[in-house]
Hints:
This protein has helices at about 5-25, 35-45, 50-60, 105-115; strands at about 85, 95-100, 120-125, 155-160. By secondary structure, it is an alpha/beta fold. This is Iron-dependent repressor IdeR.
Amino acid sequence: MELTDEGRAIALATVRKHRLIETFLVEYLGYDWDEVHDEAEVLEHAVSDDFVERLAERLGQPTHDPHGDPIPAADGTLPTEQHTALDAVAEGVRVRVARVWDDDPDLLRHLSDVALDIGAVLTVTARKDSAGIVEPRPRRADGDPRYRRRGTHSDRSCLIRGPTAP
Length: 166
């Protein structure tokens, strides 16, 4: 199935609303990243286009949501990005977490518990074969529990997804 140009524009506008709302909920209302998806699902259908553009302006025109997903620009464009799934990264490789699937709140809570957030730099030391999650507890490559979302890294970026993610 393919979308028409008009259908694609509507879909991207809805994704933009959703991801901007998630960003607002985290940055301004103190939600954790595992709480925002369901809330944004409700709100994205209740806000106007004007509200969305004002929200984007207030947030400083963010390019990514709290899970690392790209936020479509107002004109519907998306940045071209290339990530490697964490379960495809070999042991010993240093990576930067760039994106995390947001449909598994338990996974998001676990990642928060081990300080593995967007921007975290780590070296894969061992893996569980079934889930693709590093173990033992991942160590931040820089040893610092803090991170910078907008920093640049020379490390490969990776995508973390749960065992049921597409």
